[in-house]
């Protein structure tokens, strides 16, 4: 009697757990799949049953989004900005993290905490001051030379992305370098390698796992970022999220839904594909870093 | 040319850290100082008329009803989002680490997906979910014959802030779940075995073993809840509701952005930025103080 009662609560507990798990999973899968379906629906289909499977593959939505809403150009901009920003970040952050974590010199302690304090600086606060700073630089250039375009500049945006990612990236890479034994450097030094050679051919290759995590995290961060892009690129060179923001406003007003969902798919598909390929690394790496708002 | 060892070392150090420090100072430290400095000025941002006004911007804040509304909204969001996300994330983390779940890995992978999406896409998804006539949520209620639960999720001033909170929770659960899972996984299994032998129920085990041992992790994440909710609610509200209807979803930073940028009262906008910054810092300190417990070693 007692045993069967125990079994009963046990199975109730199991059922409850599965219901909860499936409920949360559905709440994530359905909207995402729904967006994918909606992106290939014809506009008239949006007025019928929202649960209906698409009639066919209306790729025109994507054509319209790519060409008329210029999402193709924005995709190109996003690829350029994200790629450049990751290159800048690695070139700048790797040597800095290596030196900050493994060398003691005058002021090294201060510099370490100085950069770590940057973890508390939120991009949303400083977007507007950065905009005004670039505006100042632009007008200064205009008086000295003819042009000057720090605003609407993809390279500049990439550089700023890289700068804002520095504190987290240096924090993550330093904590990796700190764990390495100093034998490697000593061995390299006995073999006659200088500091630069030791760093490039011995230490940096060993950091490969952390470098991959840095690339993954910052790819997601840069690809999805929109407040800096919105503020610093008021002209033509928009990135995907900003382009999508405009597209959503325009198509909603025009009740032309297909291209709007196509735009959403264009923004989210690259990150979804990347995530499917590297999901294990990403979630494991996250716990290594243990941070990121 | 032969360099002495110390000189070579110094050159190496200088070459490696100078670019990083320079960029960090130019694009993060100086703009941050600018926020504080400009909050003491009355300035439109573009004109040359910049006037030092001391703390006048801050005094003005006290009587700005729109700011007070955005303040209330932000606090409401921080509290709801932090509490709901915390409870749900801990619950699912505990299930996925402790129980033998068929497809456990599948659930873990799915739950993390919202965290990789752009907040603009999330705004788009939730506009579709909350759409009044053909929205996903309302049509689910229609199918279940729960028509009386249907709402104008983004049109009703009483409800819209909770709709925004829902999107933020949806976005955050997976991230914090993975965080808690990793700290739960490091609890030795022998603790649970011993408790089982003594006849402790899963609930008892959760409250007496799991919760105390991950408490430190929860404390740290609470700070992140605050920082990220302040930030994400701004991005989401800007993309989804634009602060409306009638200011009912305006949050700190969206109001700051509007004042600095839309309204061209830059100094005032930066004063709001300073208040938000200090407020989140103070809140984090207070929470970290009241949640302080003796750290359990294992």
From TrEMBL, chain A:
Pfam annotation, one family: BPD_transp_1
UniProt keyword annotations, A-Z: Cell membrane, Membrane, Transmembrane, Transmembrane helix, Transport
Record family assignment: Belongs to the binding-protein-dependent transport system permease family.
Domain of life assignment: Bacteria
Transmembrane segments: 12-37, 74-101, 113-135, 155-177, 198-223, 260-278
Repressor recorded as keyword: no
Membrane topology: Multi-pass membrane protein
Residues annotated as domain ABC transmembrane type-1: 75-278
Protein name stated in the entry: Carbohydrate ABC transporter permease
Subcellular location field: Cell membrane
Annotated InterPro entries: BP-dep_ABC_trans_perm, MetI-like, MetI-like_sf
TrEMBL record, chain B:
Subcellular location: Cell membrane
Topological type in the membrane: Multi-pass membrane protein
This protein's record includes keyword Endoplasmic reticulum: no
Signal peptide: none
Keywords: Cell membrane, Membrane, Transmembrane, Transmembrane helix, Transport
Domain of life where this protein originates: Bacteria
Keyword hit for Membrane: yes
Residue ranges constituting the ABC transmembrane type-1 domain according to the UniProt record: 71-287
Recorded family membership: Belongs to the binding-protein-dependent transport system permease family.
PANTHER family: ABC TRANSPORTER PERMEASE PROTEIN, DIACETYLCHITOBIOSE UPTAKE SYSTEM PERMEASE PROTEIN NGCF
Protein name: Sugar ABC transporter permease
């Amino acid at each position: 009697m007692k045993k069967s009662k125990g079994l009963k609560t046990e199975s109730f507990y199991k059922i409850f757990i599965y219901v909860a798990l499936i409920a949360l999973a559905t709440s994530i899968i359905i909207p995402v799949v729904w967006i994918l379906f909606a992106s290939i629906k014809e506009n008239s289909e949006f007025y019928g049953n929202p649960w209906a499977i698409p009639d066919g593959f209306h790729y025109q939505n994507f054509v319209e989004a790519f060409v008329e809403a210029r999402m193709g150009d924005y995709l190109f901009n996003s690829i350029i900005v994200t790629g450049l920003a990751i290159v800048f970040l690695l070139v700048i952050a790797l040597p800095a993290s290596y030196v900050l974590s493994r060398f003691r010199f005058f002021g090294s302690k201060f510099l370490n905490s100085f950069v770590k304090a940057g973890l508390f600086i939120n991009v949303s606060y400083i977007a507007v001051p950065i905009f005004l700073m670039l505006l100042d630089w632009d007008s200064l250039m205009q008086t000295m030379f003819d042009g000057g375009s720090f605003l609407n500049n993809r390279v500049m945006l990439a550089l700023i992305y890289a700068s804002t990612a520095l504190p987290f990236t240096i924090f993550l890479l330093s904590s990796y370098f700190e764990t390495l034994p100093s034998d490697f450097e000593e061995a390299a030094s006995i073999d006659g390698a200088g500091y630069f050679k030791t760093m490039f051919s011995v230490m940096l290759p060993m950091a490969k796992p952390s470098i991959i995590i840095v690339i993954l995290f910052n790819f997601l961060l840069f690809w999805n970022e929109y407040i800096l892009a919105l503020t610093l690129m008021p002209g033509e060179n928009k990135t995907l999220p900003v382009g999508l923001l405009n597209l959503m406003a325009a198509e909603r007003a025009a009740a032309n839904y297909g291209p709007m969902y196509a735009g959403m798919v264009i923004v989210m598909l690259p990150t979804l594909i990347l995530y499917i390929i590297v999901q294990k690394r990403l979630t494991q790496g996250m716990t290594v870093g243990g941070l990121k708002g | 040319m032969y360099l002495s060892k110390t000189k070579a070392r110094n050159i190496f150090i200088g070459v490696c850290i100078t670019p990083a420090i320079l960029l960090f100072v130019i694009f993060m430290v100086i703009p941050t100082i600018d926020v504080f400095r400009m909050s003491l000025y009355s300035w439109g941002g573009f004109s040359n008329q910049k006037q030092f006004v001391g703390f006048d911007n801050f005094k003005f804040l006290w009587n700005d009803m729109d700011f007070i509304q955005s303040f209330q909204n932000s606090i409401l969001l921080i509290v709801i989002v932090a509490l709901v996300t915390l409870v749900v994330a801990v619950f699912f983390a505990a299930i996925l680490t402790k129980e033998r779940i068929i497809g456990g890995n599948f659930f873990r992978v799915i739950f993390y997906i919202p965290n990789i999406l752009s907040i603009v896409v999330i705004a788009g998804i939730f506009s579709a979910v909350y759409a009044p006539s053909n929205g996903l949520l309302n049509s689910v209620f229609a199918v279940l014959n729960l028509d009386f639960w249907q709402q104008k999720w983004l049109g009703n001033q009483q409800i819209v802030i909770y709709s925004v909170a829902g999107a933020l929770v949806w976005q955050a659960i997976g991230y914090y779940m993975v965080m808690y899972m990793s700290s739960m996984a490091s609890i030795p299994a022998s603790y649970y075995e011993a408790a089982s032998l003594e006849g402790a129920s899963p609930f008892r085990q959760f409250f007496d073993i799991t919760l105390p041992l991950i408490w430190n992790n929860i404390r740290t994440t609470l700070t992140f809840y605050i920082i990220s909710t302040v930030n994400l609610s701004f991005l989401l509200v800007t993309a989804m509701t634009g602060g409306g209807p009638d200011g009912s979803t305006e949050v700190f930073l969206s109001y700051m952005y509007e004042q600095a940028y839309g309204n061209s009262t830059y100094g005032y906008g930066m004063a709001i930025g300073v208040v938000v910054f200090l407020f989140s810092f103070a809140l984090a300190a207070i929470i970290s103080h009241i949640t302080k417990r003796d750290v359990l070693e294992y």
